[in-house]
Automatic annotation (TrEMBL):
It comes from Pararge aegeria aegeria. Residues 48-109 form the Alpha/beta hydrolase fold-3 domain. Pfam families: Abhydrolase_3 (PF07859). One of its GO terms (molecular function) is sterol ester esterase activity. GO terms for cellular component: cytosol. This is Jg6557 protein. GO terms for biological process: triglyceride catabolic process.
């Protein structure tokens, strides 16, 4: 609080030393602040590279994809990308499913031992993997259990 008060006193000149107009202009030069905003550091473009995102892969390749299951969370920064990819696969005639979990962070699998909701989300991941591998229809018997 003291730092804010002294900064405010510096800008307004209320520390009993009246700044000149030039000093005040330098102290409150909003044009220089606007010209270079800290948020400029976060402006970037992502290359449309299929090695970075399968969304950008050639449609002929995407048509050959096996069934896809996407599991994401409601407030995930990748949620829009997941939905767009699922829609693109669906339009191309692929079998695709998407689950959007509520109330979990992007890295929820890291918390599966600590939070009930994360544990339930991890169990759903396991179910989706079982579905993709068709493990529910193939009982694990000794003759089927060889790798």
């Amino acid at each position: 609080m003291g730092a804010m008060s002294s900064r405010l006193a510096y800008i307004t000149g209320s520390n009993n030393i009246r700044p000149t107009q030039e000093e005040l202009a330098v102290r409150t030069n909003l044009d220089s602040l606007i010209a270079r905003s800290p948020s400029d550091e976060f402006i970037f473009s992502v290359p449309k590279d299929p090695l970075l995102s399968p969304y950008w892969a050639d449609e002929e390749l995407l048509k050959k994809f096996p069934p896809v299951r996407i599991l994401t969370v409601h407030l995930d920064p990748c949620l829009d990308d997941c939905v767009m990819f699922a829609k693109k696969l669906k339009v191309l005639g692929n079998e695709v499913g998407i689950d959007v979990l509520e109330g979990l962070p992007h890295g929820f699998l890291n918390f599966s031992l600590m939070a009930k909701e994360a544990n339930e989300g991890s169990k759903l991941c396991i179910e989706r993997i079982k579905q993709l591998l068709d493990l529910e229809n193939h009982a694990t018997t000794p003759e089927n259990n060889h790798l």
